[in-house]
Write a structure and sequence with these properties.
single chain, mainly beta, Immunoglobulin-like, 2 domains, four-stranded mixed sheet, 15 strands, globular
């Protein structure tokens, strides 16, 4: 157990390694998660592993509910140690006063999930909680307008166009975090297809196409975000 103190975050850090495979040898007991704090960011690396696996960093406030944060990246050089750098602002709990970290070995590569976690981390690290964004939605219905979020809560919306015309409220009446949750839910329910374009600066899903089931007609969901403006 190690403790780090910063003006914004106090974390009692528990370095845990969960081995997913049952085929580990006794030599693998030397695998360890190493953590460093430079005053601004955390750095994590896995030491003593075999150089082949995928490692996923997780966070928990109390050790009972673990949330996936980021995949550790392995350098291009032979024998490179997997590691990742994390800003406290990117943690799933805003202004967390304490927390635990661990890594788990991921059974196989998952490019979509890797990109999803990286994008969500960028969004959280941006610190944007008040903003206005242009939202266009289409499926069996169509909605185009803008949604305003203040302090992490939807405060208002403006409809520009809708079909049927009486459809006033936006179908996805959500914050950006809510859109991330919608994508995660589709993945958790084994959607037939999920295609997302992530904003390179802030990480939010600029566009998404979700087909939950090939056996159900007209349930596909499409949305795009035309703009996002911070509200200061």
């Amino acid at each position: 157990m190690r403790s780090y103190l910063s003006p914004y975050l106090f974390c009692a850090l528990l370095a845990l390694v969960s081995i997913a495979s049952s085929f580990r040898s006794p030599a693998d007991e030397g695998v360890a998660l190493r953590i460093n704090w430079d005053g601004d960011d955390f750095s994590f690396c896995v030491a003593g592993e075999d150089g082949l696996g995928e490692w996923l960093l997780q966070f928990s406030q109390d050790g009972s509910d673990w949330q996936d944060l980021l995949f550790l990246e392995r350098g291009v050089e032979t024998g490179a140690v997997p590691g990742v750098q994390v800003s406290p602002a990117a943690l799933p709990v805003t202004n967390a006063q304490r927390g635990l970290f661990r890594v788990v070995e991921y059974p196989e590569g998952d490019r979509f999930y890797r990109d999803y976690l990286a994008a969500r981390s960028r969004w959280r690290a941006s610190g944007l909680t008040s903003y206005r964004y242009g939202f266009r939605w289409s499926t069996m219905i169509f909605w185009d307008g803008a949604i305003e979020v203040i302090d992490g809560q939807v405060s208002s919306y403006e409809r520009l166009e809708a079909f049927p015309p009486f459809f006033e409220e936006p179908p996805m009446y959500r914050t950006i975090e809510g859109l991330f949750d919608r994508i995660a839910d589709a993945r958790a329910r084994d959607a037939a297809s999920i295609e997302v374009t992530w904003d390179p600066e802030f990480g939010y899903p600029r566009s998404a196409a979700i087909d939950q089931s090939l056996l159900i007609a007209d349930e596909e969901q499409y949305w795009s975000i035309g703009f996002l403006e911070p509200i200061r």
